Amino acid sequence: MASTRVLVKRRKAVRNIKKITRTMELIATARFKKAMDRASEAEAYTRKIAELVTDLSATAENVSHPLLKKHDEIKNEVLLVLGSNRGLCGGYNAGILREAMLALKRIGEQKITPHLELSGKRPINFFRFAGIKAEQVYTQFEDKPTFAEVEPIADRYIKGYMDGTIDRVEVAYMKFMSASTQKPVIETLLPLDVKTTTAGKGPTTRVAESRKKTVEYEFAPSASDILTQLLPESFKVRLFKCFLDAAVSEQIARRVTMKQATENANDMIKALTQEYNRARQAGITKEILEIVSGADALS
Amino acid sequence: MAGKEIHCMIVTPERALLDVKADFVSVPLYDGELGVLPGRAPMIGRLGYGELRIRKGSTTQYLYVDGGFLQVRDDTVTVLTSRAMFDYHITPDAVRQSMEAAQAALKKASGTEAQETHRAAQDKARAQLRIAAKKKS
Predict the structure, then answer these.
(1) Is the domain of B106 the same as that of B78?
(2) Is A239 helix (H, G, I), strand (E, B) or coil?
(3) Is the Cβ of B38 closer than 8 Å to some Cβ of chain A?
(4) Quick one: closest CA in A to B14, which residue?
(5) DSSP secondary structure, B45-110, as one string
(6) Do B40 and B24 share a structural domain?
(7) CATH fold for domain A31-254
(8) Any CB–CB contact under 8 A between B45 and chain A?
(9) Which CATH number goes with the domain that contains B74?
(10) d(C-alpha A197, C-alpha A177), whole Å
(11) pLDDT digits (tens, 9 = 90+) for A114-152
């Protein structure tokens, strides 16, 4: 039987841990709400850009743009992995890294040179441990990625793609499906696909599309001119959305994990309290027995 | 029916900045200003940088936008821009500094491409200053 003092100590420790996990859960909840608001505010822009792309590509038939063209031979591929800077968020990073490793394996089999780019300390550490070199690492993206921060990265990809130094860009991140489901995915951002560009999140986009088809627009300058400007923008927005999704998903993952941890701590406290009470009672019983037997021996 | 007012939306990648009703909207297109009144035919245009005016009654709001796209449709003006600022958010001192930096860089820059970037930066700063100055008068 464990001594009561040890049990009390352990219970105290668990209680303290519970306090921490509970606080972290609350913080993650607040951050998640903020990140979610940002993501939904950004959605308007994404939707509008997608709408414009559809409208324009309907008018300017058979557009050719270097960002749309598939390169004949794929030799260099950029794989951008979006993870988190901090841990304690359950399977969030593990899921992304698993996808990323699978993608790397596939890239290797196709004899393509991978260019690994990582965001977040967790993926950086993981790949350092795995002995895979990353070409670019970012740690500045926390729960509030800004467009101004993402834009230079997007610009670099666009330039690389136009130059032919990059033949494909893929992003591994946690896609936000709903508040209860997120999925680690690999998405191909370049070459741009007009169809996927327009197929945004949720049913609202599709309704808007079918409704818009009939409008005859005036263009200033010509439709194809605008499209050339619009496509890079559309790519930037998609990349930005990946970052936003990742931020939201990370906070959700952390909240869920911390909630679980708090619940586990509660269970543990219960179990420890029970054990402590038993131990205490056993001690009392033992003492009474000793006293009684001592008294019996005297009489 | 062409309404008496237009619906003006300004959207940046990070958030929907503005969503108001207006009588008249003037936007900086890539080659000059374009005014939009209710009942305008649908159009899509490319924006340059400069001043965006939204008039409602006797009040006018001034904004600075930095490139982007314009969509007019059913008396709805949608401005998609990577950067938009209200006139009262512009800090003239900071802008002046960046303008001076651009000017200095322009003098040193060699090659047309570099010169173009710096000249654009300088012009953008100037446009912001103009808008900021308007607020005071």
Answers:
(1) no
(2) helix
(3) no
(4) A42
(5) EEEEEEEEEEEETTEEEEEEEEEEEEEEETTEEEEE-S-EEEGGG--HHHHHHHHHHHHHHHHH--
(6) yes
(7) Pyruvate Kinase; Chain: A, domain 1 (3.40.1380)
(8) yes
(9) 2.60.15.10
(10) 17
(11) 899 999 999 999 999 999 888 889 998 888 888 888 999
Cβ–Cβ < 8 Å for A28, A254: yes
Within 44-83 of A, beta carbons closer than 8 Å to B belong to: 44-46, 48-49, 51-52, 55-56
B76 and B117, same structural domain?
Answer: no
Instruction: Specify the CATH number of the domain A4-27+262-293.
Output: 1.10.287.80
Query: Are residues B80 and B115 located together in one domain of the fold?
Result: no
pLDDT at residue A81 above 70?
yes
pTM for this predicted structure: 0.84
Task: Report the distance separating Cα A148 and Cα A165, nearest Å.
Answer: 24
Range of the domain at B75: 6-87
Contact B46 A225 (CB under 8 A): yes
Domain count, chain B: 2
Task: Please tell me the distance from the alpha carbon of residue A77 to that of residue A71, in angstroms, as a whole number.
Answer: 11
Measure the CA dihedral B111/B113/B114/B119, to 10°: 120
Which of B48, B70, B87 corresponds to the end of one domain?
Answer: B87
| Residue A93 Cα, gap to closest chain B Cα (Å) | 25
**Average pLDDT, rounded, for chain A:** 86
B83 and B95 assigned to the same domain = no
Hey, which residues does B55 pair with through a beta bridge?
A: B24, B60
Tens digits of pLDDT across chain B (137 residues): 455 789 999 998 888 888 999 999 999 998 889 999 998 888 889 998 888 999 998 888 888 998 889 999 888 999 999 888 888 888 888 888 888 888 888 888 777 888 888 888 888 888 888 888 776 55
Residue type, A147: F
What does the domain layout of chain A look like in residue ranges? 4-27+262-293, 31-254
Same domain assignment for residues B29 and B51: yes
Q: Is B43 on the interface with A (CB under 8 A)?
A: yes
Chain B partners of A240 at a C-beta cutoff of 8 Å?
Answer: 13
CA dist B12 and B65 (Å) reads: 10
